Amino acid sequence: MVRVVVLRWGHRAPRDRRVTTHVALTARAFGAEGMILADVRDESVEKSVGKVVRLWGGSFKLEAGVPWRKAVEEWRGKGGLVVHLTAYGEPLTRQLAGKIRRLNKPVMVLVGSQKVPREFFAETVSDFNVSVGSQPHSEVSSLAIFLDRILGEEWLKKEFERARLKIIPQERGKKVLRLEA
Amino acid sequence: MVRVVVLRWGHRAPRDRRVTTHVALTARAFGAEGMILADVRDESVEKSVGKVVRLWGGSFKLEAGVPWRKAVEEWRGKGGLVVHLTAYGEPLTRQLAGKIRRLNKPVMVLVGSQKVPREFFAETVSDFNVSVGSQPHSEVSSLAIFLDRILGEEWLKKEFERARLKIIPQERGKKVLRLEA
């Protein structure tokens, strides 16, 4: 399975708090290994995500405050791919997802919020500009579909180690196991 | 293609405004025909969604303020299916998606926000309780994956009639057609 990290750009507190938290939790649930909250720190987001990791397990890492350019340059320097999710990019067909997977390199996914710098579209930053539908919708949806296509549904069965809470799926009602830490 | 509407439950303004807007725009972009914002009205959400429909086309309808029970009862009364998206439900495998598709009935998707009433899990409300991963993440991601599985990727190619703006996908940069209304 390809290694994926998400880089969240353009976060403004308090306005983007819930959406950025949803981006982070989607990244975690769909199998990314971590998220970088670029350029800023936000205690509220860091706390919410930290609490989920503590209760629900796994080793998802949230790093906040790294300048986006530094994060991208380090990633590329180590041979990683950068994929910029944008409504303007090439459609994420099965073929394109297959092409990205077959490169078999760690992927950094750039997820914007407000209007992103022009530079994000350039070869110096992104290897691919990818759209999940050419309509305005949500960076949360785009990320979910991208991770689903790249990680090949393995994420649905992913187990999170050291979980204190674990849902046992049911047709009706709720069943949650509470485990000793 | 199966007809789908989304019922958004538990919206609290101002806290949920952006996430509810993302739910609505995801519903539209992924091929649902409309969304019901249950029990409350929120001018800010209605305006944002209305603006997207005016500029980007299509006939997506947002209805706000209908009591959830009335909406569900009417839908079921007309023979529609109700699918409740919840982290506690049956995993949305390809088999389950196929089963729902083969019933070939219009689908109402219940999307919660805060903790939902116990009743949502019962046969009197939902035909299926479906989870998109048994982890806490985002109703926006869950809805995107559900619509993707049920509408079979047709949504990626969907054209929106009467659009004033249309993105022409590019490998680099942005290209938007501005059309006469």
Question: Mind explaining what this structure looks like?
Answer:
The structure is a homodimer of 181-residue chains. The model of chain A has no long low-confidence stretch (mean pLDDT 96). Chain A is α/β, with parallel strands linked by helices and 181 residues long. The first copy, chain A, has helices at 17-29, 43-56, 68-77, 94-103, 139-151, and strands at residues 4-8, 34-37, 61-64, 81-91, 107-111, 128-131, 165-167, 176-178. In chain A, 33% of the residues lie in helices and 22% in strands. In chain A, the strands form two sheets. The first copy, chain A, has a six-stranded parallel beta sheet, with helices on both faces. The first copy, chain A, has a two-stranded antiparallel ribbon with strand order 7-8. Chain A has a single domain (4-178), classed as Alpha/beta knot (3-Layer(aba) Sandwich), CATH 3.40.1280.10. At the A-B interface, helix 1, strand 4, strand 6 and helix 5 of A face helix 1, strand 4, strand 6 and helix 5 of B.
Summarize the topology:
2 copies of one chain form a homodimer.
Chain A: E1 4-8, H1 17-29, E2 34-37, H2 43-56, E3 61-64, H3 68-77, E4 81-91, H4 94-103, E5 107-111, E6 128-131, H5 139-151, E7 165-167, E8 176-178
Parallel strand pairs in A: 1-2, 1-5, 2-3, 4-5, 4-6
Antiparallel strand pairs in A: 7-8
At the first level of CATH, the class of chain A is Alpha Beta
* Quaternary form: homodimer
Largest sheet: number of strands, sense, barrel closure of chain A:
6 strands, parallel
Tally of discrete structural domains of chain A: 1
Low-confidence stretches of chain A: none
Q: Would you tell me the structural class of the helices and strands of chain A? A: alpha/beta
Q: Which two chains form the greatest contact, residue counts included?
A: A-B, 54 and 54 residues
Question: Which range does the strand content of chain A fall in?
Answer: 15-25%
Strand count of chain A: 8
Fraction of residues of chain A in helices? Answer: 25-40%
Question: What is the element string of chain A, with H for helices and E for strands?
Answer: EHEHEHEHEEHEE
**Spatial extent as radius of gyration of chain A:** 16 Å
Residue-averaged pLDDT of chain A, rounded?
A: 96
Query: What is the overall silhouette of chain A?
Result: globular
CATH topology of chain A: Alpha/beta knot
CATH architecture of chain A: 3-Layer(aba) Sandwich
Total of helices of chain A: 5
| CATH-defined superfamily of chain A | SPOUT methyltransferase, trefoil knot domain
